[in-house]
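Lab channel / #folding
Pinned by the channel admin:
"Please post every new chain as: sequence first, then the structure tokens as a reply. Keep commentary short and put observations after the output so the thread stays searchable."

First post following the new format, from NK:
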Amino acid sequence: MIFEAVSVIPEVFDPYLNASVLGRARRSGVFEFAAHDLREWTHDRHRTVDDAPFGGGQGMLMKPGPIFEAVEDLSARGEVRPHVVLFSPCGTPFDERAAERLAQEERLLFVCGRYEGMDERVYSLADEVLCVGDYVLTGGELAALVVIDSVVRLLPGALGDDMSAVDESFSPSGLLEYAQYTRPADFRGMGVPEVLLSGDHAKVDAWRRASSVERTARWRPDLLGSAELTDAERELALRVRAGLAEEGEGHGSPSR
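Reply from TO:
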């Protein structure tokens, strides 16, 4: 799979994409990545990519010209036209379902905004516009890295054990991942559930499923509505929520 990004600071991508899991996947050919400097498509000696907004206001906007030229030029290269992704608070919320869908594309091109944003006409270039959260970032580079990281994990060979991605939170059950433990079996008086030490794989699987339901009910009850649960699992979730209401929300220790 091919990822590309258009940015005014293209050098920020490689340090992350060359490290750890993504670095190994990149070196083994699971995916390719190229960052393009937007200033390559400017035509003035200052290589200007921004200008003041019509109507006044604070900050500067990214001009449409360089972005249009960049996307059109890059789209004409290669055998496969890229799926063009932009980021905006107005975009579709990015989640695991979106990552799974993007993982089916052969080539993704991210256009990374900066400054106060982009000229509205730029969005006509997008095949889709995403939002990675209800907060403000300095630029689209971090958003692009979030999406790339999430999508690469779903590509065959990226994690070594392809079941690793299946067991993660949100995939495919829609629930949070079950609680996990490692050595020592007793740490500062906190023990590991006995079932995990039993060696009985069927019981371990059943415990993990129940743990996923419990943790989702505690930390992300909004996910329960779309999860496929048995009647017994729904009763378990209701008991967890009832218990939280009695003791007060926020007790416990969340993890991924």
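NK: The CA atoms of residues 88 and 131 lie 5 Å apart.
TO: also worth noting, Strands lie at 2-7, 32-37, 50-51, 61-62, 83-93, 107-111, 128-131, 186-187, 190-191.
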